[in-house]
Amino acid sequence: SDLSHIRNFAIIAHIDHGKSTLADRLIQLCGNVEDRDMKEQLLDSMDLERERGITIKAQTVRLNYTSPSDGRTYQLNLMDTPGHVDFAYEVSRSLAACEGSLLVVDASQGVEAQTLANVYQAIDAGHEIIPVLNKIDLPAAEPERVKQQIEDVIGLDTSDSVGISAKTGLHVDQVLEALVHRLPPPKGNLEAPLQALLVDSWYDSYLGVITLVRVREGVVRKGMRLRMMATGAVHLVDKVGIFTPKMVETDSLSAGEMGFIMSGIKSVADCQIGDTLTDERNPAATPLPGFKPSVPVVWCGLFPVDTSDFEALRDSLAKLRLNDSSFEYQADTSAALGFGFRCGFLGLLHMEIIQERLEREFDLDLITTAPSVVYRLYMTDGVMSELHNPADMPDPAKIDHMEEPWVKATIMVPDDYLGQVLALCTERRGIQLDLTYAGNRAMAVYKLPLNEIVFDFYDRLKSISRGYASFDYEMSEYQESDLVRISILVNAEPVDALSFIAHRSQAEYRGRQICARLKDLIPRHLFKIPIQAAIGGRVIARETIAAMRKDVTAKCYGGDITRKKKLLEKQKAGKKRMRQFGKVEIPQTAFISALRMN
Ligand code: GTP
What we know:
Layout: E1 6-13, H1 19-29, H2 47-52, E2 60-66, E3 73-79, H3 88-95, E4 100-106, H4 113-124, E5 128-134, H5 143-154, E6 162-163, H6 172-182, E7 195-204, E8 208-217, E9 219-221, E10 225-228, E11 234-236, E12 239-243, E13 247-250, E14 252-254, E15 258-262, E16 276-279, E17 298-304, H7 310-323, E18 328-334, E19 338-345, H8 348-361, E20 366-368, E21 372-373, E22 375-379, E23 384-387, E24 399-414, H9 418-427, E25 431-438, E26 441-449, H10 450-453, H11 457-464, E27 470-481, E28 483-490, E29 493-494, E30 500-503, H12 504-521, E31 529-535, E32 538-545, H13 561-576, E33 578-581, E34 584-587, H14 589-593
Parallel strand pairs: 1-3, 1-4, 4-5, 5-6
Antiparallel strand pairs: 2-3, 7-8, 7-16, 8-15, 9-14, 10-11, 10-16, 12-13, 12-15, 17-19, 17-20, 17-21, 18-19, 22-23, 22-24, 24-26, 24-27, 25-26, 28-29, 28-30, 28-31, 31-32, 33-34
The protein binds guanosine-5'-triphosphate (GTP).
C-alpha cells in the first residue's frame, strides 16, 4: 500500500516561541480555512486556554498540500503539542503518533528549557527533526547565533534549517516544502488486521466521548466492532472522521492516518490512553507499545466555602474528570474544613487550571489547601504506604523511615543571573549535576526534591532572573529523607489543613515563617490569638495576634450611613471566604499564602 503522500508531524517549541502562530499559518496556506474564519488561535478551543495562551489538549489537523516542486498533493497531519512542563506526558504521546517534528525556536531568544525537553522527547520517539528559526522579522533576531546554539547544545545539524516569520508569513512555504521532502512517510499495511493507537479522548456534551487515534495497520470503518485490547471492551463505531480543524466525517481511516472515532463509549475513564484498538472480527495478534500512565505528583485538598456546596463540588469534579483522565480525586474530611476532596494533579499549573475551571465554569467558591507531594512511608512493621495528605501522617514512633520524590531539573539562564539561581537551588536542597555554557547563557542541571519546587520555585526563579530563566523538570526517583510533620495551632487548636511536611533542617525556619505570615493574614479578633508551629508536642515557633481595640464601623457612627453600609457589605463578602476554627475566623487566602516561601 502506498502511504508516500502522508506526513505526520508535530510542532515542538518553548512557550511563546510561536508554535500556535505557525500552526495557524500552515492551516491558512493549505487553504483549509477562509481568512475571515481565522480566530486568534485556531487550535486552542477552550476559552480558558485561549486566555492563558496554553494548549492543554493535544489535537490534530489534516491539511492538503500541493507541492509546487513536484505537483503532488500530500496529506499532512499536524499534531498539536502542549508546551508546558506539567503536560510533558501529553507531548510524548502526541509524538508517538508522528514520524517527524518541526522544532520552532524564537530567533531572538534562542534555545530554552522546554526546547530541550521537547526535542529530547522527539529524538526518543525516533523523529526526523527540522529546525525552524522563527521571528526573523524582529530586529533582535540573531538566526546565525541561534543556529550555532542549536548545534552546540542539542547537536542537531542546522544546515537545512528554515528561517521564517510565522507572524508575517515570510518563508512559511519553505516549511511546507521541507515537511514533504525531508520527513519520512508513515509505514503500514492496509490489508493487515487493524491496530490503532488511542492517543487521546475527551468528552463533548453534544457528541459524547470522542477518541483521537493514529491508525498503524489496517483500516477502521463506520459500523465496525472495535475491541480495546487492554480493557477488552467492545464498541460499535458510530462515526469516523478528521479535523480540518472542523470535524468532518469520512468513510474510513487507514494505516498512516490520524483522526477521530465516536463509538458509544460512556466515559473517558473507559478509554485507556495508549491502548490499541482492533477489529473484533479480525483482531491483531499483539497490541502496539502503549504509553506510561500519567501519575499525579501534586495533591491538595479542595473544600467548598459553603458546606452545602459539597454535592455540587462532587458533580463538578466528576464532569471535569470526564475530560481529563490525568486528574484524580477522592473524598476527604478535614476537622478544620469539613467535607471535601483530596485531588491529584500533574503539576502546579494543572492544579491551578482545575481550580480555576471549578470556580468559573461551575461557579463554586473553594478553599484550597497547600499542595503536597506524595511521600512513601516505611512502617516499623515492614508495610509501605503512600502519604498524600500531611494531615494523615501516622505516629512517628511507628515509622521506620520516609522517602520523598526527587526531580531532575534543567535551568537555562543568562550569565548575569546565574549566581542567584545557583543560590536558590542550594537553598532548596539542590544537588548540582552539570553546569555548561552556550554563548552567554548557562545551562544548570540539578537534582531537587519535588517538595522544594511545588510551591513557588518557578515564581522565585522568574523573579530573580527578571523573567529570563526557563525551567523544566522530569521525575527522577524516591530517596530516603529526614522528614517531619509540622502542625499549626491557632488559638491552641490544631488546624489540620495547614499542617505540612518539611525536611528537618528547614522545619524551624519554615515554622517561624508561617507563624509570622499567619499573624498578618488572620484579622484581629476581640481576644488575643496565639499562633504556634509544632513538631509532635514540641513548639518550634510562636507569634501572637493582639486583641482588636475597636469595632471597625465605630468611627463611622453619626457619619455617612452609605459608607458604613459599604463597609459592612465588604466585611460580609470577606466572610464568605472565611472559615471558623474554634473561636477564630481564618480567611481562605491564608491556606495557601501561609506556606509560600520567600
Ligand atoms: P504557547 O501556546 O503558549 O505554547 O505559545 P506558542 O509557542 O504557541 O506561541 P504563540 O504562537 O502564541 O506566539 C507567542 C507570541 O509570539 C505571540 O504574541 C505571537 O504573536 C508572537 N509571534 C509568533 N510568531 C512571530 C513572528 O514570526 N514574529 C513576531 N514578531 N512575533 C511572533
